[in-house]
Amino acid sequence: MMLAVIGVGLLAGVLGAILGLGGGVVVVPALEFVLPRFGHDISISQAVAVSQIGVLAVGLSGAASYLQQGLVRARTGYLLSPYTIVGGAVGSFLGLVLPAKAVATVFALLLLYSAYNLLRGLKRVEVERQSSPLVAPAMTFAGVMSGLLGIGGGTVQVPVLNLLDGMPIRQAIATSTFIMGLTAVGNALVYQAGGLLDIKLAAGVALGVLVGAKAGAGLQSKIPAAQLKLFFSVLLIFTALQLLWKYWSHA
C-alpha cells in the first residue's frame, strides 16, 4: 500500500511542478481509488488533509528548482501569499464543517471559464501586461479553494497570474508553485488540529512528491509555452468535470 501511495505522490509531483499545481487534483481522487483496494478506507476530508502535505512538498521541491532557473517572481509571491494563506485557512476551516457541493459547482464553472480564456489566448504573444485590481481577491479565492477542496490553488493561481496579472505562463507556473508552499503550511496545521491528517500516508505522498516535483521542474523548461497552456487548459476541464461528477453523480 505504501508503494502505491508513494507512486501517487510521484505522479502528483511531476504534474504539479510542470503545471504549477499542488498535486491535489491527482492525490485526492487517487487516494480515494487506491486505498480501498488495500482494505484502507479514507474519507474525502482525510484525503484533502493528506493532499495539503503533498502541496507543501511540491512547493518546497518545485519552487527550489524554479528559483535556480530564475523563473520565480519572488516579490510578487511574497506580496500575494498573505491573501492565499488567509484564504487557505478560511477554506480549511470550512472544509471541516461545510458541505462543499455548491462551492465545488461554482468552482468547476470558474475552471471551465479559465480554460476557455487560456485556449482563446494560445496564439497570443507572451508579453508583460498591466496587472488587474482583481488579482488580490482572486488569489484569496484561490486560497479558499485550496483549503476547502484540497485540489491545489494553482488551478486558480496560474490563470490569475497569467490572465489578470499579465505574467508569462512559465513565470506564472513557477510563482504559483512558490506561493503554494507558503499557503499549504497553514492548511495542513488546520487539518492536523482537526484530527484528520494521517501522518503515515502524508509521509508516503510527500516522499513521492519531492522526487517527482524535482523531475517535473526540469521537464517544464523543455515544453513550449503554447503547449503548457494547452495542457493546463485540458487539466482545468478535467478537474471541473471531475468535481461536477463527484458532487452531482449521486444527487
Ranges where pLDDT stays below 50 over 5 or more residues in a row are none
How far is the first residue's CA from the last residue's CA? 32 Å
Task: Supply the helix-strand structural class.
Answer: mainly alpha
Largest sheet, in brief, is:
none
Q: How many H/I helices?
A: 10
Radius of gyration based on Cα positions: 16 Å
H/E series, N to C? HHHHHHHHHH
Helix percent band: over 70%
Look at the structure and give the mean pLDDT.
79
Oligomeric state: single chain
| Number of separate strands | 0
The outline comes out as: globular
Strand fraction band? under 5%
Describe the 3D structure.
Keywords: Cell membrane, Membrane, Transmembrane, Transmembrane helix. It comes from Deinococcus xinjiangensis. InterPro entries: TM_pro_TauE-like, TSUP/Inactive_protease-like. This is Probable membrane transporter protein. The protein is mainly α. It has helices at residues 2-19, 24-34, 44-69, 74-97, 101-120, 135-149, 154-164, 169-193, 199-220, 225-248. The chain is built from ten helices and no strands. The protein starts with a helix and ends with a helix. The relative contact order is 0.24.
